[in-house]
TrEMBL record:
Its EC number is 2.7.7.19. It is an enzyme of class 2 (transferase). Residues 23-160 form the Poly(A) RNA polymerase mitochondrial-like central palm domain. It comes from Geotrypetes seraphini. One of its GO terms (biological process) is regulation of gene expression. It is found in: Cytoplasm. Keywords: ATP-binding, Cytoplasm, Differentiation, Magnesium, Manganese, Metal-binding, mRNA processing, Nucleotide-binding, Oogenesis, Transferase. Its cofactor is Mg(2+); Mn(2+). Residues 248-302 form the PAP-associated domain. This is polynucleotide adenylyltransferase. Its main location: cytoplasm.
């Protein structure tokens, strides 16, 4: 597997300007101390490579991909790892075929691999095997043929490395949402994936955009039918986006909170990173009576469908509104997120 590591964008001076104000400095320090390190990624990929060799004893032509935050540029030092086992590039029935395949994988892990701890088959809409690698200490979730996850991993990875301010902003939003208790799809709130798309959408819709729609600008690089073996090449071939927007990280974080607290029309509109704008909700049944609609850029499903209870939606709205007002009043990250505590915890994990 090929990894493309982020380097500062030589065409902008955003790393200089964003560090001049206290709130921006806090966001930047949080990012620098909590972001996933190269050694963390190496541990995960070493395990992936070993597991692929083991699984190929069961399915000789299969491939195992690292996906999600571990590879898309938005991971932290404490991020778990997601794996996608591809048996064939055509879809498989998740209720029958995928569960059968995963049951064989679980049995193989339980009986043959002493370094794999607690392999457990979870019969969800997209079934997974959860387990822990004793050597690295990393927790893994493994699915079968959820190939849209491979495509969106590299789309997000390209966004992450297109403009210097994207990764720090996404990380502070994820940390803030976790602190507020609104970053857990299994409990009816927002997944990390939805939060990332919400940040990207906000950066696309500014009067002077910080991000374009990569799918519109480079349709061939993000073709949803592209062979999976070629998908990883996109981040390496797309140049930095030279935005004229000079907003600091602090301004952008406050603007993100304000946008969803006061400006976005939750009742009528859908967030679309693919279109780089908010678009009217479709009339399809999937989108009706949903509190939050965030379009998946490839298969165009709703990534925020887990928010199906009104009181959870009300809490999400309330947290945006309260946090925006607090941050506007004092411009101190500690007023909405215990920055100093996060910093200390991160340093202890090093």
């Amino acid at each position: 597997m090929v990894f493309w590591e982020w380097q500062p964008n030589p065409f902008t001076n955003s790393c200089v300007s964003i560090s001049r104000k206290e709130l921006s400095q806090q966001v930047l320090e949080l990012f620098q101390n909590c972001q996933q390190q190269a050694c963390d990624l190496k541990k995960k990929d070493t395990c992936r490579a070993e597991l692929q060799r083991e699984i190929q004893q069961l399915f000789p032509r299969s491939r195992l991909y690292l996906v999600g935050s571990s590879l898309n540029g938005f991971g932290t030092r404490s991020s778990d790892a997601d794996l996608c086992l591809v048996i064939q590039e055509e879809p498989v029935n998740q209720k029958t075929e995928a569960r059968h395949i995963l049951s064989l994988v679980q049995k193989h892990f339980s009986t043959r691999l002493s370094y794999i701890e607690r392999p457990q088959l979870i019969r969800a809409k997209v079934p997974i095997v959860k387990f822990r690698d004793k050597v690295s200490g990393v927790e893994f979730d493994l699915n079968v043929n959820n190939v849209v996850g491979i495509r969106n991993t590299f789309l997000l990875r390209t966004y992450a490395h297109t403009e210097n301010r994207v990764r720090p902003l996404v990380l502070v939003v994820k940390k803030w949402a976790s602190h507020c208790g609104i970053n857990d799809a299994s409990r009816g709130t927002l997944s990390s994936y939805s939060l990332v798309l919400m940040v990207l959408h906000y950066l696309q819709t500014l009067p002077e955009p910080i991000l374009p729609s990569l799918q519109k600008v480079y349709p061939d690089r993000f073709n949803p039918t592209m062979q999976l073996d070629l998908v990883h090449q996109a981040p390496c071939t797309i140049p930095p986006y030279l935005s004229k927007n000079g907003s600091t990280l602090g301004d952008l974080f406050m603007g993100f909170l304000k946008y969803y607290a006061t400006e976005f029309d939750w009742d009528k509109m859908m967030i679309s990173v693919r279109e780089a704008k908010a678009i009217p909700r479709p009339d399809d049944i999937e989108w009706q009576h949903k509190f939050i609609c965030v379009e998946e850029p490839f298969d165009r499903t709703n990534t925020a469908r887990a928010v199906h209870e009104k009181y959870k939606f009300d809490k999400i709205q309330e947290d945006f509104q309260k946090s925006w007002h607090r941050l506007k009043d004092n411009r101190d990250l500690n007023s909405i997120l215990p920055f100093k505590k996060n910093y200390t915890t991160s340093m202890q994990k090093r």
